[in-house]
Design brief:
The structure holds 2 protein chains of 2 kinds.
Chain A: H1 3-40, H2 45-83, H3 85-91
Chain B: H1 2-22, H2 27-45, H3 55-92, H4 98-113, H5 116-130, H6 141-146, H7 148-179, H8 189-216
Helix pairs in contact in B: 1-2, 1-3, 1-5, 2-5, 3-4, 3-5, 3-8, 7-8
The chains are: A mainly alpha, B mainly alpha.
Chain lengths: ~90, ~220
């Protein structure tokens, strides 16, 4: 695997890592609000939207340090590679 | 004067590609940044990097190298933006919403906070040392660029197939959910596929540019 492909693969994984905590929170909130809507027969869109948005906001607040840490770790690893891009490209 | 312009293309291309991919920067600011950084880097390396050869060949080569540096520097920012779009799709059903903007700001803060801008400038100057703007090797830039399209298509096929599978699966899921009288946000499939296709295009461009550089050098 070339360095460029490895970096891009890691970038894609980073996307999933960054989004995963918040997506899981949105999923749980969606399921709970869906069940609540089914039990109460309330069809208002706010019943499903508001808990989901609130859960996403709370998840971002809780997981922001971890998300930023992941981003910083990846960037710390990538940017020296970018600086050495000339050498890496020239080696191929 | 022509030598300064040719040397400046690398830095200008890096800045233009980086700011265009990240988005949110006005065109005028993009142009001014690109011109300033390109001119500065050209003046810095002009003494140690003599320009020789056909200018248009050198210019194309400089632009390709600069664009590659810009794409490399933009990867963390693009990852954050893609994560924000995924969250927007999950929370609001739209690809462009408040969370994408929030993640963009977070990524920009990280970029500046850990000296990403310094890394980009360092990369431009370092690359001038490692890959000087010399055409002594008589590089065939046009032939290398001609390989870009087939390479891009070959690389994009798996991603496009994945996007198509997502669309079909989402359609089937929506139909099954309809039979079960459950409510499913079917509109989510289109933005999700768009995000995947955008990611595929960026990845394709980066890998194809790397391939072009490898063929060029």
């Amino acid at each position: 695997m070339t360095p460029v492909v490895a970096v891009l693969r890691e970038g894609m994984l980073l996307v999933l890592l960054l989004a995963a905590p918040v997506l899981v929170a949105a999923l749980i909130a969606g399921i709970v609000s869906g069940l609540l809507g089914a039990f109460t027969q309330i069809q208002d869109p706010a019943v499903s939207l508001v808990p989901r948005v609130a859960a996403v906001g709370a998840a971002i607040v809780i997981f922001a340090p971890a998300i930023a840490h992941q981003l910083v770790a990846f960037a710390d690893k990538l940017w020296p590679l970018v600086t050495a891009a000339g050498t890496v490209s020239g080696a191929g | 004067m022509l030598a300064i312009v040719v040397l400046g293309l690398r830095g200008a291309a890096a800045v233009l590609v980086l700011t265009t991919l990240v988005g949110g920067v006005p065109r005028v600011v993009q142009g001014a940044l690109a011109a300033a950084l390109g001119l500065w880097s050209a003046l810095v390396v002009a003494d140690v990097t003599p320009v020789a050869g056909i200018p248009w060949e050198l210019a194309a080569r400089e632009i390709v190298i600069g664009a590659t540096l810009g794409i490399g520097a933009a990867v963390p920012l693009l990852a954050a933006a893609a994560a924000g779009r995924m969250i927007d799709i999950a929370a609001t059903g739209r690809a462009q919403g408040p969370y994408a903007a929030l993640f963009g700001v977070l990524a920009a803060a990280v970029f500046v906070g850990i000296d990403g801008h310094v890394a980009v400038i360092d990369a431009i100057v370092t690359s001038h040392r490692d890959l000087p703007a010399l055409a002594a090797s008589r590089v065939d830039v046009l032939a290398a660029l001609a390989k870009l399209v087939p390479t891009a298509i070959r690389l994009a096929i798996p991603w496009l197939v994945t996007a198509a599978v997502v669309q079909v699966a989402a359609g089937a899921g929506t139909r099954l959910a309809g039979r079960a009288s459950a409510s499913v946000p079917g509109a989510v499939a289109v933005p999700a596929a768009l995000v995947m296709m955008t990611a595929s295009l960026v990845a394709t461009l980066a890998v194809a540019l790397a391939a072009v550089i490898r063929h060029t050098l």
